[in-house]
Every structure is written in C-alpha cells, then in structure tokens.
Amino acid sequence: MSKLEYCAGSTPDGVRKLSALSSYVGQQRQISQSSLRFLRDYGGFSRDICFRRNLGVQSRFYGSEAKFVERRPSFSEVNSKDVSYFKSILGENNVILDVDRLQSANTDWMHKYKGSSKIMLLPRSTEEVSQIMSYCSSRHLAVVPQGGNTGLVGGSVPVFDEVIVNLSSMNKILSFDKVSGILVCEAGCILENLESFVDNEGYSSIVLCLRIQFCVVYVKTPTFRLQHDIRFVMPLDLGAKGSCQIGGNVSTNAGGLRLVRYGSLHGNVLGNI
Fold this sequence. Notes:
Structural class: alpha/beta
Largest sheet: 5 strands, mixed
Distance between the termini: 84 Å
Helix content: 25-40%
Radius of gyration: 29 Å
Order of helices and strands: HHHHEHEHEEEEHEEEEHHE
Strand content: 5-15%
C-alpha cells in the first residue's frame, strides 16, 4: 500500500481528494518560488534593501495622490481688499499674515500634507464666523476650518490657498447648570481643559449634558464614588487632548479611549444653540 493510499484511508474518493490537494500545494510552492526569485532579482539580496524600496514605493504613492489634485478655477484668490475687510470685522491682531505662523497652520501634525494659504483668521464669536463665511461665499473664496490641527489625515490643512478659519480663540466655557447637567462652551475649547473643568465640579447624582456652541453633547457618566454619587466626566479621551479642540472632535466624530463605554461622540450630540 502506498503512502498516499494509506493517508487517504485506502478509499478511491480519498485518494482523488488528496491527489488534488497535493497538486494544489505544488502549484502554490511554484508561485512562492517565483515570487522569491523576483524579489532577489529586483529587490536586492538584503531584506533591509527590500524594506527601504517598499517604503519608497509607498511614499511615492501618497505623493502621487496630491499631484493630480487641481485647483478649481471658480474659486477666487485673496486680495488686499479681502484682507482689509477681514481686519475691519476681526481687528488687526486676529488676521494672521505672518509667514512663520502660517507655516505651522499650513502643515499637518504628521508633516505629510502641506498647503499654501496666505491668510489665517481668528474669529472670537459665532457672529464673526457668520460674517466671514457670508463674505467668502459672496467672493467665492475657499475656506478650511481648523482647530487644534491634530488630525492625521490632512483634513484641517488647506489643499491650496484656502482661507484658514481657526477657532482657537473661541475657547470660553459659557455656563454649567448642575441641575440639568448642561455645560455650554465654545467650539475652540481644548478637550483637556473641559475635562479639568468637569472634574472640578465634584460629584452629583445626575448625569451630565455637555452643550457646545454649534453642537450639543450628551455625556453619560456612570463613574461611581459612593453608592448614589456620580462623577462628571467627558465621554471622550484622546492622546492629543492637550491640544485638540472639542469642535474638531465633534466634526470628525472622534473615538478615543472611552468609545466602547460611552459610544461614538455623534451619539452624544444633542443639537446646537
């Protein structure tokens, strides 16, 4: 009795199945050997060389994606009249034209994406944001909103020369009602500052509703200290909480370390004011 027949249980059907399997394994072995020969011929004999070449292909792929993006001709470019208008509603100090400050605003946190905006605006209220957006719409000026600029996909940096509207100056906590558990704050508040504020409010038997200007967030807080006391906490915790802003967190539906416990951030948003 052959080894093939013995392993297959000496049945004709088992022999046919094992023969087909052996043929398949042989084909896969030939494919693997061909792949190895290809790597030796074109990737170099060293694994380190192969690894570096693969990284080179990857970086060229990311770079090629940006090269094929074209600026829409329907968008206008910022001129001196636009700058004068922005200064009239925001003030001199809140219209940034300095090259050094614009360089950081034009570059993402990973230094993988870079724009070429020549102006950054720092509004201090929703009314100023509304005036900016109304004017840019009438002038066909492209706009990119920006918060803490901690994103990893380039969503907070301009692609070309868009007007950067940075909300970092809108960082006020407006009110907190312990009875209803509603916190009213602006979109530029840093996440860690909100966490510290809520944590300092002590313990209560109610849950917390976080209301944000432009959006309202509902925060469930089942962190027990005593039998009937509940501690106020934010439903979001990120590694970048020291610089990210709540407006950007909500707009990107940031997950973070408490996602499984409290659900997505959009699930905690109630509305806007």
